[in-house]
Write a structure and sequence with these properties.
By secondary structure, the protein is of the alpha/beta class. It has helices at about 10, 25-30, 30-45, 80-85, 110-125, 170-185, 195-205, 220-235, 255-275, 290-295, 300-310, 360-370, 385-400, 415-425, 455-465, 475-495, 495-500, 520-530, 555-565; strands spanning about 15-25, 50-55, 90-95, 130-135, 190, 315-320, 325-330, 335-340, 350, 370-375, 410-415, 435, 505-510, 535-540. Helix 3 (about 30-45) packs across helix 8 (about 220-235).
Amino acid sequence: MITKNESADLLAVPRSKRIVFFGDSITENGTYIRNLEAFFLKHLPEHRLEWINLGVSSETVAGTSEKDHPFPRPCVHERLERALAETRPDWVFICYGMNDGIYHPFGEARFEAYRDGLRQAVEQVQSVGARVILMTPPPFDVASIGGEALPDGKDMNEYSFERPYVKYNEVLERYAAWVQQYGEAEGLTVVDLRRPLSELIRKRREADAGYRYGDGIHPNEDGHWVIAQTILSRVFHLELERIPAWAEVDGGDSEFIRLVGQRRAVLNAAWREHVGHTNPNKLETPPLAEALQQAEALLPAIERAAALEGGTESAEVREWMGFARTDFYFGGRECVVVAPREAAPGRPWVWRSEFFGAFADADLALLEQGWHVAYCRLSHLYGCPYASGQMEAFRAWLTAKYELAPKPVLFGFSRGGLYALRYAALYPDHVAALYLDAPVVDIRSWPGGQGAGRGAPEEWHDCLAVYDIAKSAATPAEANRLAGEETDRLLAGLTAPASAGVPVLLISGDADLDVPFEENGAVLERTYRAHGGSVMTILKPGGGHHPHSLPDVTPIVQFVLSSAANRVQ
């Protein structure tokens, strides 16, 4: 029996939380926190999250400081107890490391101080009942620094933030690796900032050899968007690929982001000085109570500006493959609907559960036949029950908004098969048909790699967390057993769509090394037929996981048109 809400508490975006950030000058700058608050005010205004920025320039968690620093570096432990008492947080983000190595070559004593300091901070935050979220140190980009970088072999007193060690990024890599290992061992959420920011630097520099990542230490605005985007993904399970117009460099002419920035400036300064710190550079600010009133007074203007700049949906229409494509947000998630030139009777539609636009020949052929194509980005939820609930909310909204048929045909490619199958098991009366292409059916096979397939270790780690298996499984064998129970529940639930007469088209290659047919498609085929369901299977001799679809999509189109004819209404 599949339950609809078993993962909801774990994955749902919270309605209210008090969220506190501790960090150095990157956090004090706070552009990524501004972006987070802006995203929620714009696209999820019913979620009232309170964002408190307690970043302090030059601060460490280790208590380290270099000789040439203009003042002894502040240490978060000098203020942590008071900060927690004043803010009473639900969640606490901790991001240190950039300053803790004091821009020197790697040193074991400094590294030990960093580890001890971070452990102490985590324990102190947990002692007040708050959730800890660790962030790895961002990268140090030596190509972007304005001054001299020193090589190995210098006197240790010569290295500083003004003359950093040329390979300091390698030092931070060791710090970040430990943060991830420690966080995983302690069951903490860890947001890896290094990989996405390093990828940003790489891509920007490929396009422009002169690209500068801020000053090499502090990211510029595009880096702050990547930090916010990564937090939205890893903590809130909101995957974004597009950059909102208001988050573009300098925000363009967005009055909305200007007002959010004004609100953040008032709050950041007031909270920083109210809690107190040992950085001698103080900010002029009214008392906290007055600042809170000023920030609250800005909300009506922010809401008006948000509405004028597209509201929660922020819909944008553009051309896609000769058709009108509308990109928009629903529930904070990126969505797409592509309209045919003329809708077919009943306004039928195809629903891509994953990988919109990939191997899209069948989608395009059906658009030519008058079908709509839609997508809601629920990536990295691995078809869990919570994802199905989000899918149903999207279907109900979309069919009303665009007057589409109540029963779509779901296309589930690869891991998209998990989404399509679980949705059909939970909502069989809302599905016209299923086209599944090299579908994942058993998470032990992919991403687990517990059978003949290659597996994907990073995705397996995330999948176990999404299904709340990671915390309850003491050993890999136990995790595998619990994952098998999830697959058994999924397969048992297929009685519902089989009984409801939902037909299935299954296309797979018989030489798929990523999602082996025998461990996935063949299991689905046997199970669905045993439940009395109809399965049409096309097995491609010698076919691997890619390419999906068929060279000639006529069988797919014919299946969709004929199978759905009596079920789309």
